[in-house]
Design a protein that fits this description.
64% helix, mainly alpha
Length: 56
């Protein structure tokens, strides 16, 4: 299995999801705080897909 570096946009979106999820855990943000774990999970899955799939 050959892994690739994710594109900059994919990496940036994944980091934004992760940071929002972590922030939502400690600071009350209306929608994000409810789904903070989901935001972090989406960020990790997006990074994993960006590494696994070429061109993402």
């Amino acid at each position: 299995m050959k892994l690739n570096a994710p594109k900059n946009v994919t990496w940036l979106v994944a980091v934004i999801f992760g940071v929002l999820g972590i922030l939502g855990r400690f600071v009350q943000i209306p929608l994000v705080s409810t789904y903070s774990f989901l935001f972090v999970a989406i960020g990790f899955v997006l990074l994993a897909l960006g590494t696994y799939l070429k061109g993402l």
